[in-house]
Every structure is written in C-alpha cells, then in structure tokens.
Predict the 3D structure of the following.
Amino acid sequence: MLKVNEHYLKLQASYLFSDIAKRVAAFQAKNPEREVIKLGIGDVTNPLPAACIQAFHTAVDEMATTSGFRGYGPEQGYDFLRSAIAVNDFQARGAEVHADEIFVSDGAKCDTGNIQELFAADARIAIPDPVYPVYLDTNVMAGRTGSFKDGRFEGIVYLESTQANNYVPDLPTEPVDLIYLCFPNNPTGSTITKEQLKVWVDFARDSKALILFDAAYEAFIRDPKLPHSIYEIEGAREVAIEFRSYSKSAGFTGTRCAYTVVPKECMAYDAGGNKQPLHPLWNRRHCTKFNGVSYPVQRAAEAVYSPEGKAQCTALIDGYLGNAKIIGKAMAELGYSYVGGDNAPYIWIQGNRDSWEFFDMLLDKAGVVCTPGAGFGKCGQGYIRLSAFNSEANVVKAMELIRQALA
Ligand code: MLT
C-alpha cells in the first residue's frame, strides 16, 4: 500500500492565491455582468519592456538557424546573463557577488520553496508573520512542523511583524537555524534599513544560522539609503542566500526568469559540526532537478541591463509605484491607516474587521479583489493587502468603487 506524505495533510486548504482565484471565479460565474478589478495577487499587467521583447525575438530567430540553435544550456544559466547580474545588481552597489555564485532559474517562488531541501529535517525555522505563504507551506510539506493549532504550526518560530515593530521583526528569543526575511516586504510593503539588516546578519553569524533573503521587490526601492541586497551588509556572504526575480521588476511573471545567489563562503554544518559549503549542494540540486531557463528568455532578461532596458524597467516600476500612491491616498481619505507603497508595490491596510469578511465585502460591493491579510498569517488578521499591479485607469476606478462601497 502506497502511503502519502502525511505532512501534506497538515496544510491549510489550498494555496492562498489559488483559493482567492477560485472565490473570484465563483463570484464571476454568479455575477457575469459585474466588472471585477484585480488588486489581489501581485501579477503585473503591463507588457514586457521593448528592449526585452527585441532581445527575445532576436534569440528566437537565432534558434531558427543551424549555427545559432542551442539545445540544453548550462543548468546554472548562460554566462552572459550571470555576468550581467553580478556586475549590475551587485558589484555596481558595492556588494561582492561573482557570476559563478548566481543560479538562474524559472522563479523565486520555486527557489524559495526548493532551497529548504538542503537543510536537515530538524532545522529550527524562523518565519515572519505575516509572510509570503511559500516559505511556510514548503517547510510543512517537508515535515519540519507539527500540526496546525490556533492559526499556527507547531514547531515554527514566528517572527511577528506588526505596527509595534514597524513591520520589521525583532530577533527571536529562542534558538533558530534558518531565518526567512523578505524586504521590501511581501505582504506589508515595509522596508529594512542597513542598520536593522546588520543586526540580523550579526545574529546569524553568532548563532551559526542562515538567512534566506527574498529581495524579489528590490527594484521598487526608491529611498537611496535602503539596502537592495543583503550582501551590502558586511559579513552577509557567510550567512545569507538571496533570491531575486524579473517577475515584478521587468514584467516576467508569465515569461519566468529569476535567480538565486549562493556565495562560496556560505556555510551550514554536517552532523559532526564541520562546515559544509552550500554552493556545491545547491549546484548539485539545481543540476539534478532543473534543466535551465530557455535561451530566448535569458536573452530577454539580459536586456533588462541594457541602457534602454534599464530606462524601460524604471518607467514600468514608476507606473506601479504611482498606482500605490493613488491607493494609499484613497484609503487614507477613507480613514484607513496603511503602510507600504513607497518602496514596494503592496499597500497593507488595517481594515478593522475580519480580513476575509473585508475581502468578501470588497468583492461583492465594489467588484475589487484584494488579498485578505489573514491568508499571510495570524498577524495579518484584520488587514487586507492591495496590490499596485494594474493599469492606472483600473486603479483609479477601483478606488472610486471602494469609496462608494465603504461610504
Ligand atoms: C503575491 O501576490 O504575493 C505574489 O505575486 C505571489 C508570487 O509572487 O508568487
């Protein structure tokens, strides 16, 4: 008799965003005449930057020739892209990252979900609350938690991010081995300063822990004092893995391209307490389970770093940040307090009522989809998240519909 992985049975319902999509589909089936504006899942709506499209086309044409055709590429990514990343995303900011420490992949969701395979089953995990659900769900699947009780999984150290700490969690008071951090934050849109991040890096070094730093939203940072990478912090190369994505920065949600940085100095320990570099382990995993991102997609990603690509991506992001301002202003006028939106595409709104109730009410009365804060964890109860990823016209319309619904 084949038995299932019982840990999957501990998971709560379906994946948050699938759950929301199902509810929205049911609403649309019941109300086919109603327009629905989606400010729920952070999915981009603008077309790919022209520079990326041009590079994509050129690469597809190359694939149509005998001399330009490529079969399997290097699993870690082509050198042209890894080098462009190292130079532009890190070295230009004074952060030491080398091309061969970069692993190109098809998404930060997959990478943040898969990385936990490298660590022991009894690793003690610290996860923010509220949090992007992938970090938690993948550790539940791997059996690193007990059961779900009172809105939380037993065995997880929750790092509460609330108004009281300005949505930057305090250090844990119990021992942990693996720490998930995400800045600019999904879902709260909060940011972390270099000084605050240094505290975490020092903590990880002192406690032989590792930080998994999700920087998928770094391109939205407009405050020049904020760090874009954890490697801007001294000592981070030994204790941090960083995840990046082209999904939100260049509109690649449907095109798929991202990368993970595993510095050569980055270590964990074997059962005998000996240091084990993580770079060869991730390389082994990547080569065994992944066959690389397609050549045209990597050429399109490389174009992000051309002068035209940089300008076009900045314009895209500025547009979304403009939407965030519109959302924040409208919610403030309606008397709601919120954070985020300045250096992130998410606005985290205190709804003063049950999150799912707020979600249902907005959908029903305004035809606007939000993400209920409770879906991101216990500390998200009472909040909703609005995403700035839509056209400006739709955002303006959505805010007007919300105004009418809440009036
Ligand atoms: C979100 O809405 O939180 C994200 O778009 C989901 C994702 O990136 O997978």
Remarks:
- The mean pLDDT is 97.
- Residues 41-43, 109, 132, 186 surround D-malate (CB under 6 Å).
- The first strand starts at residue 37 and ends at 38.
- Residues 53-306 form a domain with the Aspartate Aminotransferase; domain 2 fold (CATH 3.40.640.10).
